[in-house]
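Quick one: structure for this chain?
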Amino acid sequence: MNPILDNHCHLDSEEGMGIAAVEDFSKSGGTHMLVVNQHSWRGGKNPTDISDFEERFYQTIEIVEQATEVLQGRAWSVLGIHPALISRLVEDGQTVKEAGKFMCEGLDMAAKMIDRGDAIALKSGRPHYEVSQEIWEMSNEVLRHAISLAAKMGIAVQLHTEETEDLSEVSDWAIEMGLPWQKVVKHFAGGVCKGVTPSVISRKEELERAIQSGKPFMMETDYLDDLRRPGAVLGMKTVPKRTKLLRERGYEELMEVAHVDTPEMVYGIKTRD
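Got it. Here's what it folds into:
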């Protein structure tokens, strides 16, 4: 078995394909996946209590257990808070400080679940769209809180951030807190990202840039699993197909690094027995 890992995807048994998407991934050659919880708002309704975060986290943990039964390898959960929540909470009437505090409480809950073995990494970040200076500064406070939690636990943190090829500022925060920069992962990276480990969105052109960089990277689809948006962002078959194509083109060693060595370095997981 040649391991093929999708480093960032979503599964939703209520509003998406759920396990059927995992079956598509497996039939295409995919063996392992990191499943990130869906955002904490649904049907236009924002979370109002910490239990709303808990419900989302447990949904992810449950479907990851089901996915592991389907895969040749296994799935792992990544739990956290989508950074866009701060804007939604402020629009709902919360102060920026209140919104930031609530998001940090959600991250604390995620960290507790990770600590007891329900997941392997945190998700956090900062808005990828224009916001006020106050929201930007608070978002960075929330992000630093996530990094501090990851540092204390020795785990990785996946980041949803603005489009950028340089997150050295964030990796400096991580290093200051005792978290190796390699454990800071830029989700939806466009081929390269200085200072962190890129999780490259698996479009052909972005993968070409990642290969040319000569630096370690992982591959992802950011599959949303929303029946209203089929195949968004990329379909679950994409990473297996792209990986097989790149292996056929002679990049077997690079694919071994992307699907075996880098995940072990970042998360401490083994995709090859």
